[in-house]
## 1
Amino acid sequence: MPSITDYFYEYLNDDIFEKIVYYTNLYAIQNSQTRYKPTNCNEIKKFIGIHLIMGCLKYPRVRLYWENATAVNIIIENMSRDRFFTLRRNFNLIDNTEIPKNNTHKFIKVRPLYDAINKKCNSLPVERRLSVDEQMVPYKGHLQMKQYVKGKPCPWGIKAFLLCGESGMVYNILLYQGATTELDTSTQKKFGLGASVVLHLTKHLKKNRHFLFFDNFFSTFNLFEQLQANQIYSVGTIRTNRFADPPLLTDKQLAKMGRGTAFEISTKMENFNLCMVKWYDTRSVTLVSNYIGSGQMDTVRRWDKKLKMYVNIERPEIITAYNTSMGGVDKVDQLISYYRTFIRSKKWTLRMIVHAFDLIVVNCWIQYKKDADHYNINKNKRKDLLHFRMALAENLIKVGQNVPIKRRGRPRADTGDNNEVSTIPKVRKVDSSQPTDDVRKDKFDHFPEFDTKGHTSRCKNPGCKRKTHIFCIKCNIHLCLDGTSNCFYNFHQ
């Protein structure tokens, strides 16, 4: 099974990191920052890892991660506060001086990152049941591309259209930028914006393999016809005025017939058939499909206000299929919202960049769960999203990195009356936590050191019960190293 960082590096490889390093350094030079120290790939990985940790801990201010009372050791030991803000201020993906004057691509500054994500997403094995919906990247600053979508958890922000599976795995992304959205002009004129988005996101799908679900923003008659030609089976809620006002029963008629009533009509054409179902629960909803109708009815439990009790009502098969498979984009939104990277900046590019990192982590975790099922790994040994994200952050910060050198400052005077300098040595905390497998096996900067404790500590190599004073300065755990045992070597292999 791949390591945690292997999943991440499939989205952001060394080429992407080298480009980030190059353009970040270039941006600092262009802005005449004379005190700026050039960055490198390892430092950029630390920078990303620190952001992932911040998304998990969610301090209300970024500076709190470096303050004495609330400091996080893994952050303060690997990057200073000023260096962190310097990198954030200069983080860049392109050369801004090369942007053409007649440029119409509004997301050109973050395009390389999202292209890299899309390239990997398009190569993933695709689930059978898919959904298309919109996603909002939270942002309230001044921005031409900013949208307001009523009913969303984050109604203000930058809109993106996603193709997702039932599990929440993202397979394609389209950033929305208004009239200049990267859609084929002829397709958009023929099908309209919503239908063109669906056709764009599904153009890489194989024929006769997938079931697609979307809401009434995308649904048109021409879209269902084209999806049928592409051999993609689809279901969507609709606005009836887009379908020439079909002869359906009114809401009043359905209400008189009672909850659970369904009315169905269908078309009979030579190469294309549609089935339209209107179902009444507390309100009516109308769905269209090119492969399914009322089908086999099932029952659902609903609360009846008049009877003040639960009742069972019938539900068509098309409603069941839609409710089961439509929530892919909502699921990825939910997973991102749990540990969204906290950032307050007027730069919309930073908001889009850290959102891309959050999206990658969620996709990696879903793939990790699928691989864990494939390899039959016990559920109690699998990492949840929080621990997966923290382990990934630790790997990005520590794997292949030098052990941070602790700065020596002036010894603090004792607070007693004699003002003598305290000579009590500060005991280093060892065995605070087990390192991840990626850190312990990276074969970089693992050195033994002798602790100053008055007693020995248990060796942390699995299966060893001996005690020792020796510990690894990078892994920060005790390991045997003497003439009869070499757990220090065995632990790092």
Note: Residues 348-374 form the longest helix (27 residues).
## 2
Amino acid sequence: MAFRLVTQQVARRRGGLLTALQFAKLEHCAFSVSASRMTEDVRIETDTFGELKVPADRYYGAQTMRSVLNFPIGGPTERMPEPIIKAMGVLKKAAALVNKEYGLDGRVADAISQAADDVISGRLYQENHFPLVIWQTGSGTQTNMNVNEVISNRAIELLGGKLGSKDPVHPNDHVNKSQSSNDTFPTAIHIAVARELVENLKPGLKILHDALEAKAREFKDIIKIGRTHTMDAVPLTLGQEFSGYVQQLTFALDRIDAVLPRVYMLALGGTAVGTGLNTRVGFAEKTAAKIAELTKLPFVSAPNKFEALAARDAMVEVSGCLNTIATSLMKIGNDIRFLGSGPRCGLGELMLPENEPGSSIMPGKVNPTQCESLTMICAQVMGNSVAVTVGGSNGHFELNVFKPLIASNVLRSIRLLADGSRTFTANCVNGIQANRDRIAQIMNESLMLVTALNPHIGYDKAAKIAKTAHKEGTTLKASALKLGYLTEQQFAEWVRPENMLGPK
């Protein structure tokens, strides 16, 4: 707090507004001034640019600190997503274990592996050892170095060394051995996205799928009027209507399974441009196998490292999958919202759970808030997909440099869809009830039941019956008898909604 006050005082003395970058750098200077009086709170770290003071209770080093100063954008809400950091921990552990096979000092390799476990667990992320934001270098280099520095210093601590000394564990020479930011960051993206798809989104969608399927069975005998173009159409059952939603969720799960094989292909081993410079023969395959072992997912080494570094097509494909799922959920959410409209002046065919008051001025009003939440999520996912598409299309020459944007948007979409599916199921779908009286009333008033007469009296006469009934405000039966096209007995025999639900 002291260094922020110093910064503000200096800013006031200068008599003007500071840019975010100027403020951040000034704040760091103030921090350094304050820290010089409390040397126990900081330590000196170095990189190729020189020395920087960093907080003594943080494991990161100079390169992380420079990124904090150079990209003061958005604050804590814009931090690199936790799944990416955990995935970096997985690949660093895998690389250390494989490098040990290739001759890396066992004591160093084991310390790196143990330090990586603290990253994988998420503990160090929650303790703010990974402060960098998404909006940094497009290759993710600073986040890769952030992870290298944290693991290096944690490993040094485990071995009884001095933080910041880079001895006996160096962030580049040891933690980053046989790697480059250009292959580690895309590898982390694929690990994180695969895990989130398999462990979070698929289970969330399955919960929603099963709840909708249960409703389809529950509603299988409730005959209602269908609607096309939002206008009255022929009958179907409420169960048949819900079965369409079930199929959409079935296809959603199938689509995820269809994209996963490309997500399981890892760039690690391509190093800077895809050639594998500074690695050993077999390193790529061994690390992919080790990552598969650690995650229990079928990761493999990408067949072409040039594609794996230069393009992010697999993530664009995932984003397209998520966009399609969002489209499905938008349709389902809106249908349920409109079918539940009312309670007296809307369609009112469904009765939705009443979860909270809906108005600050209209007493007793209750709104379809779960539908609103779900459809807003879908809109956000669609927007995220646009950004991912732009980012994926900007892979220039041997490297795509929109990776943090792509990774954060895909992961955010997965999380939103997974959480949204679960809450929509628990707080809406499970409690939906059919308003049988209202459904029967609407169906019996529909003019489109006249469609059942087509095979018996022809389209033109049937249309005349419907138009006359609509114009005169009478029933189909009264109109048909008045026009003399059929008898009362014929009408009762031919116009039966329960016989209009499928082919004969």
Note: The radius of gyration is 31 Å.
## 3
Amino acid sequence: METTENKQKLVKIPPDGGYGWVIVFANALSNFITVPLIHCFGLIFKDTFTELGLSATQGSLIINLNGAFGMMTGLINGVLLKVYGCRKVAFLAAFLLTGGVVLTSFSKSFAHFVVSYGLITSLGIGMCQSSYGLALNMYFKEKRNVAMGFAVTITGLGPIIIPQLIGFLMTIYTPQDVTFIFGGICAHVFIAALLLQPVEWHMKTEKQTIEELLPVVTKTEETVWGRLFQNIVKTFDLDLLKDPIFVNIMMGMALAIFAELNFTVLTPFMLQEFGLDTAQTATFLSTLGITDIIFRFFAPYIGNFFTKPPRLMYAYSLILLIITRFTFLMSNDFYLLLVIALGLGIAKGIRKVYMGLVIPAHVPIEKLASANGMEMMMNGFCIIIGGLVLGLVRDVTGSYKLCVVIMNCVTFTTILMWSLEALIVKCRKKEQVLEHGISLQQVNSKT
């Protein structure tokens, strides 16, 4: 027999500020370094790949391995975060990231690039994204969108400053030397890891009315295999997969992130195909980055003004990305491309803020590490499989234009999936309202 009673109890809640702003800085510092590393790899090695005789498929595989491998281990990252916490995982990430970039500077063959940049560096980047993203979400609740906005705004300085720095260094040093210097810059991620104090040190307490169940008597007899299965489910929080909305969110975001990552890393190659030199390419990327950072700052306030949830704001940014990518294909004039860079920056700025808020808005905080791990794993599979397809398309057609068309179709699939979900949910709510109304009529008629 279960009885309930309401009590006042002191509960711990996230600080929603205080030391949380240090976590925002740590998140921004890590991403300031790692995000441009992904963006500028093509800028550094676009000529080196040609000199080494690497095909577009091989180059695409290296780039997509970097984007995918760390994500494919996301489920394991989730368990590591639950067991060891954000700080220890962040230190391991810093070691892998710095070591991987330094080893990349010595790479002279396809196999070396695959191991150093495609695998080791990727693991470091993936663990960085997992640990710092989870830490920020654990420190904030009510102010989460503002905190994320500040973090990604500071992060946005990276794509502005780093391409110019890379462009300058490329005039003095070889691509290998530039990569080695960047390895030294990556070592600053150790500082960010040091700042990740456990959230328990800074939790606030408040009184809340809670409902307790007294007593709770439970008994289901399980076999050894049944208990083993339940332990696996509990460890990895696999019960999340029973939620069709979460699965739809995860799959939709994986498709959209695959398209965005590939468009980002292939942009320097496409601009080279359009006839732009290194200086013009760096200017395009910096123009995009400036617009991106401005709209990262304003995105939380835009969402609050229109009172739209994170997923809807994210979907709006995807629509804008589709439009600007198609426009990108229609011109190779440098000044028109700069205008297109403005449009891409607006869409990317809004997308970047709300990308990290979609899943936390749907999943409880205690399962967030596993949920993010599942999402990253799904992202990784989409990136590696789709990246190989894009590389083959580039080799067959000799152009990146069809690749952009494919990316846009994939992004539109995300919008279509989420729209269908919204329609189904709306129809079910109407059915429930009608059923409830019919039940009330039947009760009234009997009375």
Note: The chain has a mean pLDDT of 84.
